[in-house]
Amino acid sequence: MRTPIVAGNWKMNLGTDEAVELARGIGENAPTNGVTCIVAPVSVHLSSVAEALAASPVLLSAQNMHWADSGAYTGEVAGPMLKELAVRYVILGHSERRQYFGETDEEVNRKVLSALEQDFRPIVCFGETLEERESGRTEAKVEFQVRAALSGLTVEQAERVILAYEPIWAIGTGKTASPQQAQQVHSFIRDIVGERFDRSTANSMPILYGGSVKPRNFGDLIDEKDIDGGLVGGASLKVDSFVELARIAHSV
Description:
Blueprint: E1 5-9, H1 16-29, E2 36-40, H2 46-52, E3 59-62, H3 79-83, E4 89-92, H4 95-101, H5 105-117, E5 121-126, H6 130-134, H7 138-149, H8 155-158, E6 162-165, H9 179-196, H10 199-204, E7 207-209, H11 215-222, E8 229-232, H12 239-250
Parallel strand pairs: 1-2, 1-8, 2-3, 3-4, 4-5, 5-6, 6-7
Helix pairs in contact: 1-12, 7-9, 11-12
């Protein structure tokens, strides 16, 4: 059985005090078993949030990391730096990184390999635009991105990867893929992983859905057999909505 995951991507939001207050609220109220809860604050708040979560089962993620351990990469954050802050997960390949900062599939793959070598669990994002969906290219786009992200991984490495399907047309728009649409893509992804590695690896790999996830739609999504949780944006910025998502996942 795959343990459900609720991962909150806080993006470029909140001041330090707000981030600490949110982390404490989630840590004090989220379910403590049957679901994995993760929060990903902006990098400058990682230390403060790590301290706020020290006595909590809620785990810490970074929103990005560079593939190099150090070097002349102004503005970037390296894995060894994140290790010092109790970070366990890293979000890689988010559509906003690809769209606004020009990240390529090759760069995402380099980051995935680096993260795994440093014992992080990468949450690897991918998804299609509205134009690609409407023109029937969803599967082609998703397959290309997933295969590129997993290129060069061993079975043992793949077993530590979390995938996150985030249709770009649903991120921050209020639109959400229907449970049936999401399940179709998640099942397709699991088949790709099974072909690339083996069926056991595919069956054990968590695949999250992201894109305007809220308590009112999360239950129907996570009821689908291949949807293992959510990578959540706006609804992760309030204690009540994050905790409600975690409780929904816990009840599956």
